[in-house]
Amino acid sequence: MTGRGGRPLALVIEDDLRYVRQLRADLAVGDFAAVFAGTGGQGLHEAISVAPDVVLLDLGLPDIEALSVFAQLRASCDAPVIAMSAREDDDGIAGALEAGIDDYLAKPFDLDQLLARLRAVLWRAPGAEVGAPPPFESDGLSVDFAGAEVTVGGRPVALSAAEFRLLRFLARNRDRVFRPAQLVEEVWGPEYAGDRHLTRVYVGRVREKIERDPGAPRHLVTRPGVGYMLRKHE
Ligand code: CA
């Protein structure tokens, strides 16, 4: 962590003053240092000058389209990016997830939701539990719960925080089929229950990373009309 006074540093790119005020207070409670930018242009400038540990990016900015800001952030700093958006802006969220944003917060959100997302992206292994079960091993895919590591054919796979949460949940519950809405609730929490596109987008992204042929998955399979499951091959 490179933040001021040993605290992680969050860059908030947000033009809505209500959220700026809320985030200023919440980030202080969570013991984050914070820098605020009211426009995409200013945010990109700050990203280079302060080298944040994490970026909170509003999807509706006054000057530059948020996805363009995101693409430039990716090019200029390696901090994880959490998108923030009002629930009615589903296209924006789906587009952001497809663009590779690390996670997202639906507005309005509360302190606990904010801190949970920040911890998830900063310490990508929120579930590196004590007494974790042995790794899930199946046909070249390995999910190590204790170290939060995923390998395919022995090679490590880089998953975002949310991608890992989804895969971990399915690996813990191997060979069980889950409806998309169930997965959203289990992986993201009940407040996201309406956002079923999350499952579709994330299943696709995880498949791209763990399947030899994402179009004909062997691990993360679809049960048509029902949902998804992670299959354990003997
Ligand atoms: Ca806005």
Can you give the helix content as a percent range? 25-40%
Please mark out the parts with pLDDT under 50 across 5 or more consecutive residues, or reply none.
Answer: 125-130
Radius of gyration: 18 Å
Number of distinct beta strands: 11
Going by helix content, strand content and strand pairing, the class is alpha/beta
Give the topology string: H per helix, E per strand. EHEHEHEHEHEEEEHHHEE
Rounded mean pLDDT is: 86
Cα-to-Cα separation, first versus last residue: 41 Å
Strand order of the largest sheet: 2-1-3-4-5
Largest sheet: 5 strands, parallel
What would you call the shape?
Answer: globular
Bound molecules: calcium ion
Explained architecture:
The protein is an alpha/beta fold. Helix content is 39%, strand content 20%. The chain is built from 8 helices and 11 strands. It has a 5-stranded parallel sheet with strand order 2-1-3-4-5, sandwiched between helices. The protein has a 4-stranded antiparallel sheet with strand order 6-7-8-9, covered by helices on one side. It has a two-stranded antiparallel sheet with strand order 10-11. A hairpin with a 3-residue loop joins strand 10 and strand 11. Helix 6 (161-172) crosses helix 8 (197-210). The relative contact order is 0.10. Calcium ion (CA) is lined by residues 15-16, 58, 60-61.
